[in-house]
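Minutes, project check-in

Agenda point 3 was the complex the collaborators sent over. CS summarized: two entities, 586 residues total, and the question is how they sit relative to each other. Sequences were read into the notes so everyone works from the same version.
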Amino acid sequence: MLLERYLESLGSEAIQEALGLDGPRPALVRPTQDPKFGDFQINGAMALGKELGRPPRELAQPIAEALTGVDAIAKAEVAGPGFVNIHLEPAWIASKLTEALRDPARNGVPTVEDVSKIVVDFSSPNIAKQMHVGHLRSTIIGDAIARILSFMGHDVVRDNHLGDWGTQFGLLIVGMREWGDEEALHATPVPELERVYKLASQRAGNDDAFAERARAELAKLQNGDEENRRLWEHFVDVSRTTLNAVYAELDVSFDTWLGESAYHDALPGVVEELLARGIARVDDKAVCVFWDDIDSAPKALRKQKTPFIVRKKDGAFLYSTTDIATVQYRKEHLRADRALYVVDNRQGLHFQQLFAVMKLLGVDMDLEHIGFGTVLGNDGKPLRTRDASGNVITLVSLLEESKQRARQRIEEGIAEGRLRVRPEEIDEVSRVVGIGAVKYADLRQNRLSDYQFDWDKMISFQGNAGPYLQYAYARCASIFAKGEVDMDAMAASATIRLDAPAEQVLGKHLLRFADVVYQAGTTSQPHLICEHIYELARAFNGFYAECPVLDAEGPTRESRLGLTALSARQIRRGLGLVGIGVVDRM
RNA sequence: GCGCCCGUAGCUCAGCUGGAUAGAGCGGCGGCCUUCUAAGCCGAUGGUCGGAGGUUCGAGUCCUCCCGGGCGCGCCA
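CS then shared the predicted structure for the full assembly.
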């Protein structure tokens, strides 16, 4: 259940009733910061103090009294300047947890009342280039958001908007003729394409004739030249094979792969429409939207005077043009209500402009730029794709390194008799732990902040890191294995009670899950789920240290098994919502 | 020049959109493995929230200015 929403409605009713108001007022329910103030506090009385011209404490008193009879609330008392502190009734919490335990499909998380069709546009790498650490964020943040929204019950379309149609293909076609190595293209296609691209773009920089040839080849490709088309298709093909391997490793999938090329035919129409409707005009032979021309344009855009160019003076289209066509497609063909663009913060201006244009075009869709910070190096400057020794930090090599480090730790642990991994499971556990560590290091941070890339931190196995959470899960699973108790059967019948302090702490964390999922989903902030699961794992580890499960007896044993099962499922589900897996033994 | 973002413990970061005595991890210090996995648990230490004003019952959070850093700004994506 959505706890805060429930308490908010209780509080709001209590305020209206207790104070004899004509309508409901927000109760402003917030979790308390310190357990001595109870579990939640109602701040609404202080806000009302001014409106009603009465001392907040005086208003808080009847509110607290109105709440004291409610099942969920053990005690409601006035404190400080006018807080109403709510202590939840442990028996009530326990009954809610028991309900969640009986609900393996949803873990007590309700589905949304109004379902939206939401396109999540994420990852979107350029074809013919290797993915590097910079691509990690969009890919895993977008994946996590898509997972969360789906779980909430929304109709989600995961779209990989590949960069498969830009100027780089002119360079690649010319470059392959000049320096291409058939054998290398067959054996290691993407690195070969990258090598050739680099040569070609360098050459184009100081050889105008060469650059001109590249432009001509691009034009031929875009006009349907058969040979160039075949070459391009080959580039796309080998790139997708390589990309798929990375996505498989990351357990990321897409519903559609509608790259820029998919919208090529729509681009002239986009420009025509913008011109016909007077939104864009020609300037120096290029077609641009000038914000100064448009009274209804956002103030910030008008002030900034940066035009939105949709056709270059040479007649070529840009990604701005493609993006407009893409929104139109999503609206008309996909019937989407929303689109989320999981793209680096640095493209903020582009999206601000794009969204403003779509509004001028009258496209009724909720468009959001889900920005994220830049990946920085240890020097605090944007990370270059090469490390100090000149090697490319590809995503594949990052993931490999992490898996290897995980394996090393596991082997040490086995040798020291600490870990329980069976020899035949080492590969799988290394994979789940290694990949999970990388994902967690990224996802646990607020996506908006810049990201300082640090091998040791990213592949950390201690403290607030991926393995900590997976370890807590393995402990849960291990209890059931050792006690030879079937988790699902136990979950279907156990009744949870909260007696010991550590049980109550754990129980209160478990109760918050649905709220956290909803908050993460509505604000597109996967780190909220990471934070919650971390705190849950801590609470579980505390419980684990304090409360014997298998050695307990009767209803206590059953209840503790129930708490363990619910913890296990919530950790597994929560990690699953951000794309991280678990293992039973580690 | 114009526009966006950031500055919180030695380091890396949270801080639920204005609530009470600002929280974690790492590092350092001190404890805990004859009891379900020590990748764990417990404790102590660590802060003028960049600075100065302001708004109000109440500010890390909102406003103004200043200092310091990052990013984006006409034909790349």
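Noted in discussion: Residues 3-88 of chain A form a domain with the Gyrase A; domain 2 fold (CATH 3.30.1360.70).
Follow-up: revisit at the next meeting once the mutant set is ready.
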